[in-house]
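Format notes (please read before filing issues)

Several people have asked whether sequences and structure tokens are stored in separate files. They are not. Every record keeps both together, in the order shown below: the sequence lines, then the token lines. Line labels are part of the format and must not be stripped during preprocessing.
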Amino acid sequence: MNLFALNVFLALAWAALSEDVTPGTLAAGFVMGFVTLWALRPLFGVPRTYFLRTFFVLRLLVMFLWELLVSSLQVAWDVITPGQGSRPALLEVPLAVQGELGILLLTNLISMTPGTLSVDVSDDRQTLLVHAMFAENPDAIRRQIKTGMERWVMEALGQA
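Then the structure lines:
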């Protein structure tokens, strides 16, 4: 059986037993089910991929929220302070992420982060064109995307 489906079933069972179907109860049930499945893993010979993938997905979510906060503050500071602090530029970023889902997730996360926008993906799916609001150092922006967002997406999708 799919471990994610089993984990969701355990979360629903927890909510049903507690007679309180709320997002908090479902989340608590999911966590309890996750811990239970992890503890029972040696008994049934369950591979660790589900648990690692769940960790990487949660880390992607947390790191994206951090990037969202930092970039929002940076853009807000540029807007409320006098003068023009931004140096916009179009940058070509070579892609290592594979598949349509990986590219879609990466481009959407970049576009949802204030100060950056995914403009286009090359026909061969090897290059991403990004508009960056603060591109004083284009190589640093490319490195930040490669070692940050792209690496987190690849780990969450099991490509790293």
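For reference, the curators noted about this record: The chain has a mean pLDDT of 92. The helical segments are 3-18, 23-44, 49-80, 99-112, 138-156.
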